[in-house]
Every structure is written in C-alpha cells, then in structure tokens.
C-alpha cells in the first residue's frame, strides 16, 4: 500500500476522502458537533498536504445524506485556523469551476457524498466525476474502508491512489496487534449483539491469551452455556452457532456476577447476583463487583489490550460502573491499549480518559472487520493485501 509520504503532492490537486461522519446536535436554531474526534484525527494528513502547497478537496459522508457538512467545514476551519471554502455540491460543473479557481494551499470542502445514491452503489460514472476534480486521490477514512463505495473503491480506478497518515497509522497499529503483539494479549468485547462480533471472538480465542466478554452479548453466551438470564436482551438465533465455537475455552472469561433489575431506567430495585441467580422477571444490565476484580487482574497482567464495546448499559448511571471501571483499569495499566467503537469512545470521553489510551481507532464497523480478519474493500483497492 502506497502512502502519502511517497506521493508527490506539491502544488497538486488532491481529493482527500475523510470520515467526518460526526454527530450533530441541534438546539435553539444552532447546530453543534457533539465530538470532533474524527475531524482532529485527520489533521496530520491535511497539514502535510498544506505544507506541500497542495490544493485540497475534502470529501466525506454524513449520516444517510440528509444533513449538510457545512457545520463540519466550519469546525475544521476553527481547528486549522485557516479558511475552508464550502461548496454545496460534491460533483459536477459547479464544483469543477470552484476547483479550477483554487490556488495552491487552499481547501475546498465538498457537500455530503451520500446526497448522491450513486456513492453507495459504487457507481463508476459517479466515481469518475469525483476523480475529474483532482490529480491524486488520498484515502484517510479508515472508518469507511469496509464500504465498497464510489469515493472509497471506484475512484481508485481513475487516479493515482494513496493512504493518508491516519489510515497508515490505523493499519500499522492493528496489524501489529493481530500479528505480533506484546503478550499477554487481552481482548475485551462488549456491546449488544454477538452476531456482529462472533467471528472476532472466534479469531481471538486462537490469537489472544485472554478474551473478556461483557455487555448484552455476554447474555447470549451465558444462555448458550445453560444459565438462566431472565428477560435479558439475547439473540436466540445465535445460541446454536455459539455452541460450535470454544465457549468452554479457559481463555474465555465471562461475568461471574451481574447487576440486575426489572427496569432499564434504574428506578426499580437494582441488585447484584451470581450469574446463576437471575430471576425470571429480571434483566442483566451490568457486570458485578466480583467480575470487576476478575477482569482487573487479567487487564493488569496484559501487555497489549484491545477493547471494543461497552460492558453494560452505561447510559444509565446505575449500570455504568462496569464500563467505567474497565476504562479506568485499562487506562491505569502499563499495557499498549487500543480502543474503538463509538460507544466505547463515548465512555472514555465521559471520564476524560481518551488521552490515556495509546490508540483510539476512528473505525467502528471497519475496526470489527479488520480485527475479524476480513478484507476491507477500501484497503484492497489501495493494494494493502497485495503488498502485505
């Protein structure tokens, strides 16, 4: 995979695909960005291009295409302390005219790519329209590399294509962690659905030294092992497939006690019980104190830690302790720590612990796909798998 470091971008028109798919909060006629983490993550690549006096054309999607990227362009302008020109379209004559008028070292920010259905269809005609705007294509959007879209895959057929500094960093860190990590390697997997993470769990039962499961996905494993989980969230259709993987492996660590209630609001009585003591009308919402002690020992023994997915219903205060404790435990450990996934990063943000982790990935689905050992179309189109 060729990176931007080897590209001659001096005075060139560069189409930079970023992942600025941020959460917008609208209140009282104003729109603010909930967290600019993904925007800040792309700054090293943008600054590298500015240093080389490139004409930078920034392309991103936002949600399903309904929202405008204009507020995001304003935030980028503030972060760079440099003028960012926003154009209300992402392809066609209007944009081509704006690009022709650009001077070296200027930035043009295109409107939401997903306003065009051709983007998600990987339409080559649309990809060629985007390619017409530039001389070089740079992909710095690790978070969308699992999507075979026009601005991620199709465009590479028309322009010399390179990985940006963020994309290079993401792949280097994750490749090291999955091929030659400092051991012991501990992997913490939380969240709601085991169906989206079963391949990852199966893979790390081979690769890792310890695999910790929490969150609602652990409920499905507990049920597959024959334990009563009451009315807890469960994926019934995953119980049979789970029995085919090593859920009895000594590497796999499940909660030994849990926090239960009959209501997810936390208003009804909340109690701690062993995993075998959940009553029929109760739901599991977090892990208990004995589980925290068990998991803390594993974390502090590890040399490398990968964490994806919250450990409980952290949005409700009574059920946030597990996720908060894990975050603090990993932050306090001497291990090389990698974390990813929007909800997991939100946990770190609430505790102001983001800076305590060695690598905070910008990928959600892309991170899961990479860690599961699947090929990502965006990386494949840059030649990552050919050269690795």
UniProtKB/TrEMBL annotation:
One of its GO terms (biological process) is glycolytic process. SUPFAM superfamilies: Phosphoglycerate kinase (SSF53748). Its EC number is 2.7.2.3. GO terms for molecular function: ADP binding; ATP binding; phosphoglycerate kinase activity. This is Phosphoglycerate kinase. Belongs to the phosphoglycerate kinase family. Monomer. Pathway: Carbohydrate degradation; glycolysis; pyruvate from D-glyceraldehyde 3-phosphate: step 2/5. ATP binds at residues 197, 315, 341-344. It comes from Candidatus Azambacteria bacterium RIFCSPHIGHO2_02_46_12. The keyword Nucleus does not apply. The keyword Nucleotide-binding applies. It is an enzyme of class 2 (transferase). PANTHER family: PHOSPHOGLYCERATE KINASE, PHOSPHOGLYCERATE KINASE 1, CHLOROPLASTIC-RELATED. Keywords: ATP-binding, Cytoplasm, Glycolysis, Kinase, Nucleotide-binding, Transferase. One of its GO terms (cellular component) is cytosol. It is found in: Cytoplasm. Substrate binds at residues 19-21, 38, 61-64, 114, 147. It catalyses: (2R)-3-phosphoglycerate + ATP = (2R)-3-phospho-glyceroyl phosphate + ADP.
């Amino acid at each position: 995979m060729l990176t931007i470091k080897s590209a001659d971008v001096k005075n060139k028109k560069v189409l930079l695909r970023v992942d600025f798919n941020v959460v917008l909060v609208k209140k009282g006629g104003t729109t603010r960005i909930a967290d600019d983490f993904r925007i800040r993550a792309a700054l090293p690549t943008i600054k590298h291009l500015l240093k080389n006096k490139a004409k930078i054309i920034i392309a991103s999607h936002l949600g399903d295409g309904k929202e405008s990227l204009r507020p995001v362009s304003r935030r980028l302008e503030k972060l760079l302390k440099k003028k960012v020109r926003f154009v209300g379209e992402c392809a066609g004559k209007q944009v081509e005219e704006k690009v022709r008028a650009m001077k070296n070292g200027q930035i043009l920010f295109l409107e939401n790519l997903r306003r065009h259905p051709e983007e998600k269809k990987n339409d080559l005609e649309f990809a060629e329209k985007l390619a017409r705007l530039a001389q070089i294509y740079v992909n710095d959007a690790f978070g969308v590399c699992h999507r075979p879209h026009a601005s991620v895959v199709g465009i590479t057929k028309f322009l010399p294509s390179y990985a940006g500094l963020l994309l290079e960093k993401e792949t280097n860190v994750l490749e090291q962690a999955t091929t030659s990590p400092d051991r012991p390697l501990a992997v913490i997997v939380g969240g709601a659905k085991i169906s989206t993470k079963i391949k990852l769990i199966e893979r790390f039962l081979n690769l890792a030294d310890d695999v910790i499961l929490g969150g609602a996905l652990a409920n499905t494993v507990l049920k597959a092992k024959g334990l009563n989980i009451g009315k807890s969230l469960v994926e019934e259709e995953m119980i049979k497939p789970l029995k085919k993987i090593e859920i009895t492996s000594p590497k796999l660590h499940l909660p030994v006690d849990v926090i239960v209630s009959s209501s997810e609001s936390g208003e009804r009585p909340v109690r701690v019980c062993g995993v075998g003591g959940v009553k029929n009308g109760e739901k599991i919402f977090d892990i208990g104190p004995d589980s925290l002690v068990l998991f803390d020992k594993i974390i502090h023994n590890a040399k490398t830690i990968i964490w994806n997915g919250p450990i409980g219903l952290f949005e409700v205060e009574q059920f946030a302790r597990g996720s908060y404790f894990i975050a603090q435990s990993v932050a306090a450990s001497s291990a090389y720590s990698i974390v990813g996934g929007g909800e997991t990063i939100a946990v770190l943000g609430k505790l102001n612990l983001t800076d305590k982790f060695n690598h905070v990935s910008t990928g959600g689905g892309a991170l899961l796909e990479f860690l599961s050992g699947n090929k990502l179309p965006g990386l494949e189109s840059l030649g990552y798998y050919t050269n690795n």
